[in-house]
Design goal:
single chain, about 220 residues, alpha+beta, 2 domains, 6-stranded antiparallel β-sheet, two-stranded antiparallel ribbon, 10 helices
Length: about 220
């Protein structure tokens, strides 16, 4: 029932947004739409993960995932680039991160292991237009459905500090499937590069900031 309501809300706000030309109403509807899309993404990720078939989750429980990890674990550990390994099943639980990812996100491997992705990395509640959760979930779904890597557009996804405050961050994410020798999906590999400085220093961003300041 909850999923049905979320889907109806998304459809309703999309329809209203397509019909209104009032800037204030558009802003409100866009915020409501993003909130509904976020709620739906979290619900789906909790119930089924990025997969659409529970049979894949059951099959993976019988597989020795550790054997697959041994093939790439040293490279993941030693990479200077941030990587996170995910279980594609219900909860999208974090299997592991490397040190570069821990440093980029103010976290530790021990704190994240076994926790649900969006529990650890929620959208910034102070940003009514945050869409990191829904966009990342959509990308992971694409990876599962196509069996191919998916490069996302540069994504704003604010990060929570150890003190509990959110700071602005922009990332270039790539999500990749990891299969066994029989082409069955075992893990999802999430790779990001922090491009915050490039985004904030771009002429387009400075122009958008001026436009926002003059719109109030």
């Amino acid at each position: 029932m909850r999923r049905f309501i979320c889907e109806q809300n998304v459809s309703h706000f999309q329809d209203l947004l397509s019909k209104t030309t009032d800037a204030s109403a558009q802003r409100t509807l866009r915020s409501l739409l993003l909130s509904a899309e976020r709620e739906l993404a979290i619900l789906d990720s909790t119930q089924s993960g990025a997969e659409t078939s529970p049979l894949e989750t059951q099959r993976r429980k019988l597989f020795d995932a550790q054997a697959v990890r041994q093939q790439f674990q040293p490279e993941l550990d030693n990479s200077p680039h941030p990587y996170m390994l995910l279980d594609p099943g219900p909860g999208l639980r974090i299997v592991d991160i490397n040190e570069a990812y821990a440093q980029a996100t103010f976290t530790t491997r021990s704190d994240l292991a076994g926790k649900s992705l969006f529990e650890v990395f929620p959208d910034n509640p102070g940003d009514e237009f945050a869409d990191g959760v829904s966009n990342l979930f959509a990308s992971l779904r694409i990876v599962v459905q196509t069996g191919q890597a998916h490069a996302m557009a540069v994504q704003r996804y604010d990060i929570r500090t150890p003190e509990g405050n959110f700071i602005e961050r922009h990332w270039q994410p790539i999500n990749t499937p990891i299969h066994d020798i029989d082409k069955h999906l075992i893990f999802l590999l999430h790779h990001v590069e922090d491009v915050t400085q490039e985004v904030l220093s771009s002429p387009l961003n400075r122009r958008n900031e001026r436009d926002q300041q003059t719109s109030y």
